[in-house]
Q: What sequence folds into this?
């Protein structure tokens, strides 16, 4: 009846004697019924294809929601920081869509709506007709898009024909919009993508209300970041957190008196650059009743009061519109959506991942076994994979490229998820902790030997120290053994900085629980001193090793194997620092004691033989050093095999000693073989592999081939600078060798008859223990 009356009214509209009395009657009825429906869309400007329609809400058939909402874009008074590139990209697409539409996607809180609102404000200022639709359900989306099309001039007859079944309403709307220019339709918060396609079809089929068909631009914001969801015509802009500088500017814009630029950037870094968190901090700092009134005070308070400052539990948090504005709840909306999509494991999996450290989590820590223990029911690997995929699709975790399959949580997602875990009524903290401990200890125990296991070992390093904080679940001795084993693997890989972090954590815990002179504490002090030495701090390492030697000599006795280890290590560092006579005396005594206590074939005994030969060579007896190193090489080949790192070290030492005896050709050939084997066994960037490259440069220089030596030094220097850093002694040794080589090359004019040994010998393969 409504459509019939509307048609009749339009037929009579040319008769004033009918129209005006009828208009008055409608006004009376409107007053009685409390409603008034205009008869036709109001136009602004002309009637051509580029005319700008009025932004008053247009008429349509009855709205499904009962009351039509405004289609005006939200007001945005804030500066848009850190999204300038994305805004320009969207503005360019607005000017020339070319059969595409835009999807601004990412996790809750990254500022998708703010970016869309900024683009909408600019478009409106430039004369585009802008319509803002907040996603609620398919019926409301349909009504709002019809209203937008009618505001652009779509005839009511076309709408009525489609609603009466003579045409597809989405087809009719998009057919009309395809002929109109200078419009922008924003569909905000379109997260329920399974309901967007229409008639149970995927969005990517473009047969529902989401289409790339218009001459204007459709812009969708969503947490769903999957290109498969949005189809080939979607121009995806996946937003991440803001960089530190942009985050600091956001804070300074909102609270200019709360501190300096550096302090604002420090707070932005602590908040992970997440716009919603920056907004929350700005609101807090701007409130007259806030206890923390500047950036630094707020940042320091976050470590104590995160739940109060950014984990607020507001009234009405079950309302999605409210939940989106609070960190603690905005991500729960995504988890609710994943649960409705048949992925109930996503929530407990995210909670479990939040128990790991603030770093990338390797796939060996995200397993069906982990989740079976965590949730107390059998979980398949497929369930875990699907849950991970869902969390990634909604931006709740990212990926880490070093090890395929590794995942990374934003620090605030991790922090808020851990808070939520503590308040869930059915959570079992002990079960979750057991799952975490089991995953960590198993992952370390099952690390592949050698080069294949090193990338995973690096990713495990930030997570395993948590074993020291759960003594009720794992004893200290077991936790320390797991961490020490991982430290050994990291040392084998050459990552001494990570190794030092782990060993220092164990030392701190052992000193706290066992006391400073317990044998296990002394073992940790020895490990820390070795890591310090590996990082190039030789004087500091010598002092530490002397202290441990004195304590072990008193606590354990002079013949204890640990005491002999410390005496060996003191001698080794003395030799590195050029104190060859003291080093030789210490190594002679240690070798004699090890032969007596451990026997001739023990690995530690072989290490003492190597160190004694090095000390003898250091004080100038190179021929004797060659003999001792060759004898040791034969024994290591017999006992350890050709590819063992100690065997490779012996071959390298033989080559060094030969070079000092003037046998440069033999030395160079042997160094080349060691380089090839170390590259194969340890990888091209291992410090020992770089040491072989340095030795080749030395051998070339000593042989008088300064041009080839300079080229080799340059190559090794670049590698050491990248791997070890500019101030490591090995890097300095290569830099010094290159400088000497260049100077002698210039002075001697490539005189190959005048070899030099001024390039240093820093960078010994490990023979401390």
A:
């Amino acid at each position: 009846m409504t459509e019939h009356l509307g048609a009749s009214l339009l037929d009579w509209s040319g008769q004033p004697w009918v129209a005006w009395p009828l208009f008055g009657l409608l006004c009376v009825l409107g007053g009685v019924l409390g409603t008034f429906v205009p008869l036709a869309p109001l136009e602004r400007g002309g009637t051509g294809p580029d005319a700008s329609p009025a932004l008053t809400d247009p008429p349509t058939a009855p709205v499904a929601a009962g009351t039509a909402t405004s289609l005006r874009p939200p007001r945005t008074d804030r500066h848009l920081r850190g999204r300038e590139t994305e805004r320009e990209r969207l503005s360019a697409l607005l000017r020339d869509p070319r059969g595409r539409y835009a999807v601004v996607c990412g996790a809750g809180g990254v500022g998708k709506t703010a970016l869309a609102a900024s683009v909408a404000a600019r478009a409106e200022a430039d004369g585009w007709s802008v319509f803002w639709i907040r996603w609620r359900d398919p019926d409301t989306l349909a009504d709002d898009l019809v209203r937008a099309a009618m505001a652009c001039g779509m005839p009511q007859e076309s709408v009525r024909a489609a609603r009466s079944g003579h045409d597809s309403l989405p087809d009719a709307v998009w057919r009309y919009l395809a002929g109109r220019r200078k419009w922008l339709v924003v569909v905000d918060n379109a997260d329920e993508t399974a309901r967007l396609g229409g008639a149970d079809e995927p969005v990517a089929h473009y047969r529902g209300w989401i289409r790339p068909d218009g001459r204007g631009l459709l812009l969708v914001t969503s947490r769903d970041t999957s290109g498969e969801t949005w189809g080939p015509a979607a121009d995806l802009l996946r937003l991440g957190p803001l960089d530190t500088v942009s985050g600091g500017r956001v804070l300074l814009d909102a609270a200019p008196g709360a501190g300096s630029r550096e302090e604002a950037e420090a707070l932005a870094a602590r908040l992970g650059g997440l716009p919603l968190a920056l907004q929350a901090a700005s609101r807090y700092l701007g409130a007259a009743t806030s206890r923390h009134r500047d950036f630094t005070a707020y940042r320091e308070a976050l470590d104590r009061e995160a739940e109060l400052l950014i984990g607020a539990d507001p009234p009405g948090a079950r309302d999605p519109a409210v939940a989106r504005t609070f960190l603690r709840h905005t991500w729960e909306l995504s988890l609710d959506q994943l649960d409705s999509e048949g992925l109930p494991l996503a929530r407990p999996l995210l909670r479990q991942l939040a128990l790991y450290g603030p770093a990338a989590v390797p796939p060996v820590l995200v397993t069906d076994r982990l989740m079976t223990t965590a949730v107390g029911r059998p979980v398949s690997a497929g369930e875990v994979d699907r849950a991970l995929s869902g969390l990634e699709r909604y931006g709740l975790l990212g990926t880490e490229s070093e090890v395929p399959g590794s995942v990374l949580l934003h620090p605030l997602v991790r922090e808020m998820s851990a808070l939520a875990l503590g308040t869930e009524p059915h959570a079992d903290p002990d079960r979750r902790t057991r799952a975490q401990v089991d995953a960590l200890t198993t992952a370390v125990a099952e690390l592949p030997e050698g080069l294949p296991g090193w990338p995973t070992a690096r990713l495990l390093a930030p997570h395993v120290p948590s074993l020291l904080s759960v003594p009720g679940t794992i004893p200290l001795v077991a936790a320390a053994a797991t961490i020490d084993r991982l430290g050994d693997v990291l040392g084998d890989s050459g990552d001494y900085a990570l190794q030092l972090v782990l060993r220092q954590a164990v030392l701190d815990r052992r000193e706290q629980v066992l006391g400073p002179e317990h044998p296990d504490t002394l073992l940790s002090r020895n490990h820390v001193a070795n890591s310090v030495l590996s990082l190039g701090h030789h004087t500091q390492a010598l002092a530490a090793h002397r202290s441990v030697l004195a304590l072990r000599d008193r606590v354990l006795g002079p013949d204890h194997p640990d005491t002999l280890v410390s005496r060996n290590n003191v001698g080794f560092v003395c030799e590195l620092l050029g104190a060859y006579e003291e080093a030789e005396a210490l190594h002679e005594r240690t070798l004699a004691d090890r032969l007596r206590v451990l026997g001739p074939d023990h690995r530690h005994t072989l290490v003492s033989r190597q160190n004694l030969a090095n000390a003898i060579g250091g004080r100038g007896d190179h021929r004797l050093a060659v003999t001792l190193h060759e004898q040791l090489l034969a024994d290591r080949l017999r006992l350890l095999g050709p590819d063992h790192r100690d065997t490779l070290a012996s071959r390298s030492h033989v080559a060094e000693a030969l070079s000092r005896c003037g046998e440069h050709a033999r030395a160079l050939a042997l160094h080349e073989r060691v380089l090839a084997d170390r590259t194969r066994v340890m990888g091209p960037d291992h410090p020992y592999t770089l040491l072989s490259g340095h030795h080749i440069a030395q051998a070339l220089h000593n042989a008088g081939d300064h041009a080839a030596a300079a080229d080799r030094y340059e190559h090794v220097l670049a590698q050491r600078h990248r791997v070890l850093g500019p101030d490591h002694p090995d890097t300095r040794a290569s830099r010094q060798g290159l400088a000497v080589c260049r100077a002698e090359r210039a002075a001697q004019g490539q005189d190959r008859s005048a070899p030099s040994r001024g390039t240093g010998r820093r960078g010994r393969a490990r023979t401390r223990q």
